Amino acid sequence: MTNISVVVRVAALFFLLASHSAAQQAAAPDHLLAVMTGELQRSLASLKKTETPPYFLSYQLTDNRSVNVTSSFGALTDSNERHTRLLDVDLRVGDPLLDNTHPLRQAAFSMSDLTDRFQSAKIPLEDDPDALRAALWYITDQKYKRAVERLQQAKANVTVKVEAEDKSGDFSQEPSETYSEPIATFSFDQKAWETRVRRYTSPFKNHPDILEASAQVIGEIETRRYVNSDGSSIRISSPFYRIIISASIKDDDGMELPLHQTYMSFREDGLPNDATVLKDVNLMVTNLLALRKAPLADAYTGPAILSGRASSVFFHEIFGHRIEGQRQKNEDEAQTFKKKVNQSVLPDFLSVYSDPTLARTANTDLVGYYLYDDEGVKARRVTVVEDGVLKNFLTSRSPIEGFPHSNGHGRRQQGYQSTARQANLVVVSKKQVPRAELKKMLIEQVKAANKPYGLFFDDIEGGFTFTQRVLPNAFNVRPTVVFRVYPDGREELVRGVDLIGTPLIAFSKIVAADDDTEVFNGMCGAESGWVPVSAIAPGLLISQIETQRKEKSQERLPILPPPTSGN
Amino acid sequence: MNLRKNVRFRAATFFLIALPVVFSHRAGAQDIVSKALQDELSRTVGQLQMQSTQKPYFVAYRADDVDDTKISASLGSLTEEVPSHRRMLGVELRVGDYKLDNSNFFSMRNMAAVGARMAQSVSEAPLDDDYSEIRRRLWLATDAEYKSAIEDYSGKKAALEQRKQAEDAQSFSKEPTVHITEAPPPVKVDLPALERLARDLSAVFKQMPEVYTSSVEIECRNSYTRYVNSEGTSFARGQSNTHLAVTAETQSSDGLPISETFDVYRRSATSLPSESELLERARQMGARIAKVRDASYVERYNGPLLFEEDAAGEIFAQIFAPALVAVPPPVSDDPRFEMFFDQFASQLTGGSLLQKIGGRVLPDFLDITENPQQESYKGAALPIAAKIDDDGVMTRSTKLVEKGTLKTLLTTRGPAPPLEHSTGSRRGWGPAPTTLTLEAEKTMTRDEMRQELLRRVKQRGLGYGIVVRSVGGGGLTGMFRMLAAMATSPGSMATNSLTEVYKLFPDGHEEAIRGADLSGMTTASFRDIVAAGNQPVLFNAQFIPKFNALFTMGLAGAPDLPVVSYIVPSLLFEEGTLVRSAAPRPNPPATKSPLAAR
C-alpha cells in the first residue's frame, strides 16, 4: 500500500502543474472547435428533417505530429516527420435502446465500409474553415446513409434472433463535458536525435552473432478535439516520447531470441540520458550472448515467480481483457466474470483498480493516461476488485446489465468504433514480502512439489488471450528472460519458453506478492484497434504454472560468416 | 566478344557527350555504396556454397536511393505532406545455368515460400553510406535468396522431369556486359512552391459546391540506382520525375458517380505547365463534370467510335500497350496451376500476342515503335528516357509493329519462347515500354476524321456517331487501378467507364452523354481502326502490367508502376460498343454542401 500512495501523490503534483498552465491560456478560443461545433449543428439541423433523424452526433479530430528516427547497427535507417489529421464521426440513428451500432449477432465481417467508394474526403492539415467544413459535411453525410441502412439491419437481426440475455440498450446518457488544455509544446531536435540513435545501436556492431538490432526514437504530439450533440467540447493536447530498442540473436537450432528495451515519457527530458541507454544496451548484448548459450527449456508445470513486469502482462491478458464491459454483453464472449459480481475472483490479499488519470508512478510515466476517453466521458478511477471480490467492470457508453453508465473507458484507435478498453491497470497486494523472501517461498514450493526446479520470469515482450467461446479461453504470455531456480538457490538462464494457461485456474494459484512493483507500458490491440496501456503489478508467486516450447524459425544460420572489412 | 566491346564503347561515348562535367567530377573515386555492393558480390561469388549443392551462377545487387515528396491538398488546404528518403537493396540470385535455373517457378506445395521470397529479395538499407552495414544487409538477404533458390531449383527440375515435353525455353538470356555511370539527380524540391501550387489548384473547387470531393496530388521523385552483377555489368543511373494529378468527383441527381482526373508527368517540378494553365484545366474539368451531371444516357450504341487526341492515347495505353510485352509462362509443381494461369491470363488479356508474332494485329497503315532513349517530342522533354534497363541491358529502339504486322514483343532477360533475347525493357517488376509511338502512313485532319465518322454513321443508318475525348481510369490510380483491371470477371474484358463522351450529329453539333461504359474492347478491336489523325498527341500514364506479368517479379528495387509516354494520333474505330453504366448508384448527399449554403 505504501507504494501506491507515493504514486498518487506524484500524480496529484503533475495535475496541479497542468491545470495551472491551463488556466493561463484558457482565454484563447479554438477556431477548429468552433468550426466543428457549427458544422455539427448545421448537419443535425438539416438531418432532423429526414425520415430517420440522428439522435446523437460527435466529431473527434485527432491531430498528430510525429518525428521518427531509426538506426540499425550504428547507421541511420530512417528519419522522417509526419503530420496527420484524422476524423472520427459517431452518428447514431434510432434511439438509445436500439440504434445503428447494435451488434449484429452471428454476422460475418462487414465489408460495407471498405467498398464505399465515396468516402474519400480528406481532412485538411491546415486550419482553413471551409475545407474542414466541406470534409465534415461529406463524411457526415456518408456516415448518415450507412447508419440508416445499418439500423434496418439491426432491427431485422433483433427480430429473427433469440432474445438477448442482456437487454440493456446501445447508448448511455452521460453528462456533457467542457474542458480545454493549451496546445502542448513539443520539442524534438531531429538532427541531435539522429546522432544519438546511431550511438544506441553501435555496440551491437561488435557482435556478429546478433543478426538484428534497431533503435527507434519517436517524438509525437497528439491534439484531440471532440464535440458532440450533448454539448460537450473537449480539447486535449499532450506530447509523448519513446525510445524502443530491439535486438535478436539466432541460435544454432534456428530459434530467434529477441530482447527489447523501451522508455517512454510525456517530456523529452524525461527520456534517459545516453549513458543510461548505453548501459542498458550493453546489458542487452550480455543477455543476448547468454541466451545463445542457454539450454532449451522443456514443457514444465510447477511453481514460478513472475517479476512485476511479467505479472503486469499476465494480469493485463488474463484478467484485464475479461473485465472489459462489452465482453459481458456479447454472447460470443465466454463472459468469465459476468455473474461473479460481489463474489471472490482473486485471492483476498489482492485488489485491482483501473485509473486512467494516473500520469506517473514513482519513476515511470504511464502511457495509459488520459483525462477524457474517446467518447467524451471523464476518466476516473474504477475499483474492479477489492480484497479479492469483483466490484465493477470497465465500461464505455455501451451499457451492460447492472452497469448502465460509462466509467470513462471508451477507447479506440482512430477509425474504429470505441469499446471498453483497459487504461492503467493496477494490481495491489495487501501482503507483501521482499523479493528474496518470495524466492525462498518458491524453493519451498519446489521442494514440496518434488520438482527439480522452479521458474523465474524476469522479462517479457507481450502476450495474447482468447476471450470468445469459439476457442478455448487460453492465454499465452511471451517471456524473453526466464531462469530456472534450483532448490539450492542457483539460477540458470533458459530459452524458448512460453507461459500458457487458462484464466480461472491461474488466478486460484496465486500465493504471494513481493514489494517490487513494476510497470509495463505497451500497446494493446483488440476490436477497437491499438491503444496505449499500462499495467502495474508486484512480483507474484504462483504455485502452479504451465509452459510450452516457443515457436521457432526453421531457417539455418547464414552459410557465410558476416562480412568484415577484412574479407 | 566483338559485340560486347562495341556496346561498351558506345555507352561510354554517349555518356561523355551527355554528362561531361559529371564524368570529370566523379572520375577515380568509387563511392562507398558501390564499393560495398562490389565487395560483397565478390565474396558471394567466390565463397557462397552450401555443402553438396551448387554455387549461384549469377548474382546481381542493386541499391536504390529514393527521395520522394508527396503533397496533397483539397479546397485550398494541404491534406497530406509526406517527404521520404529511403534506400532499398535488391538481390537477384540464380542457381543452375542459363538454360535452366530456379527462376519463374511456383510451388503449389509451398505457397508460403512464394510470398516470403517476394519479401526477402528486397531489404531496407541504411541511409548513411555505412560500408559495413550495407554489406551486412546484403549478406543476410543473399543468404535467404540462396536458400530459397536451391529449393526452387530442385523443385523446378523435379517438376520438369515428370513431363514428357522438354522445356525449350531459356531461363536467362546472355547479354553483353555494360558499364555506365550517371550522376545522381539533383535532389532539390522547392517545397513551399509546390505547397503553394497544390493549395491554389485545389482552391478552384471552393467555388464549385456541385463538386463533392476533390484533390490535388503532387509527387516528386528522384532516384539513384547502383547495380552490379557477377557477369561484370555495372551501372549507376539517375532518374527523376514529377507527377501532378487533379481529381474531382460528384454525383448526378439519380446517384450516378461522376469523376475525372487529369495527370501531368514531367521530369521535374520546374517543368510543370504554368500555374495559370493548370488552374484553367482544373476549372474546365470541374465545370465539365458539373455539367455532365445533367447529360443524357445512351442505352446502347453499336457503331463507329472516334477517340480524339488524349483519348486515343488512353485507350491504346489501357488495352493495346500491356499486350506488347512478353513474359514466359511459369513452371509449377502442379500442372493445374499452369493451366489455370494460362486460361486466366488469356481471359484477362484477350489472349497473348506472343502467338501473333508474324501476324497482323493492326491495319496495314499503322506502325508501332518503342524507343526508350527518345528524349523529347516536338520540343517537349519526355518524362523519362533511359540508356540502360533494370537488368543492366542497354535499351534500344525496337520496331514492334510494321505495316500492321507484329514483329516482336518487349522482353527482359527472362524471355518467352520463341523470343530469345532481352530488348532491354525491364522496368521494375517486368518488361514495360518507355516511349511507344503509333505512327500512321495515311492520316486525316481533325475535320476529315469527323466527316469520316459521320459518313460511316450515315452508311450504318445511325442517328449519330460517338466521339470519346477522355477515357479516364475511374478516378483510381496506381495499385487500385491495377487491381481493378486485374479483377474483372473472367470471360469478359474490362469495361471502361468513359469520362468524356459526346454524340456527334450529322449537322455537326455535339451533345455530352454520361454513364457510358466501353464494352468488350480487346487488342483484336485495334484491327478495326479505319483512320488515324495527322496530329499525334503525347500522352503519359503509368503502365499497368497484365496479370501474367506480375509473376515475373525479379529484382524490383522500386516496385512502382513505370511511367510510359505514348505518342498516338486520334483513332477512328469501325466498330465499338457503348453500354449504359451498371455501376452502383448510391444516394446523393442528404444535406447541402456548406460551400453552397453561403
Account of the 3D structure:
The complex is a heterodimer of chains A (567) and B (598). Chain A has helices at residues 2-25, 31-47, 112-115, 129-160, 190-201, 274-293, 308-318, 435-448, 503-508, and strands at 54-72, 75-95, 98-99, 178-180, 210-228, 233-250, 256-265, 300-306, 350-354, 382-386, 389-390, 410-411, 419-420, 424-429, 454-465, 475-485, 491-494, 497-501, 510-513, 518-526, 529-537, 540-549. Chain A is an alpha+beta fold and 567 residues long. Chain A has two domains: 2-293, PmbA/TldD fold (2-Layer Sandwich), CATH 3.30.2290; 300-549, no CATH class. In chain A, the strands form four sheets. In chain A, strands 1, 2, 3, 4, 5, 6 and 7 form a seven-stranded mixed β-sheet that branches. A six-stranded mixed β-sheet of chain A has the order 11-10-9-14-21-20. In chain A, helix 2 packs across helix 4 and helix 5 (190-201) packs parallel to helix 6 (274-293). The longest helix of chain A is centred in the N-terminal third of the chain and has 32 residues, at 129-160. The model of chain A is unreliable at 1-26 and 111-119 (pLDDT under 50). Chain B is an alpha+beta fold and 598 residues long. Chain B folds into two domains: 2-242, 2-Layer Sandwich (PmbA/TldD fold); 300-580, no CATH class. Helix content of chain B is 28%, strand content 29%. Chain B is built from twelve helices and 27 strands. Chain B has helices spanning 2-18, 20-26, 32-47, 111-120, 131-161, 191-203, 275-292, 310-320, 335-349, 446-459, 478-486, 594-597, and strands at residues 56-74, 77-95, 105-106, 122-125, 179-181, 213-229, 234-251, 257-266, 300-307, 331-332, 366-370, 376-377, 380-381, 398-402, 405-406, 426-427, 430-431, 435-440, 465-470, 496-497, 500-504, 510-513, 516-519, 529-532, 537-542, 563-568, 571-580. In chain B, the strands form six sheets. In chain B, strands 9, 19, 20, 21, 22, 23, 24 and 27 form an eight-stranded mixed β-sheet that branches. In chain B, helix 6 (191-203) packs parallel to helix 7 (275-292). Chain B is globular, with a radius of gyration of 25 Å. The N and C termini of chain B lie far apart (76 Å). In chain B, 48% of the residues are buried. Classes of the chains: A alpha+beta (567), B alpha+beta (598). Chains A and B meet through helix 2, strand 2 and helix 4 of A and helix 3, strand 2, helix 5 and helix 12 of B.
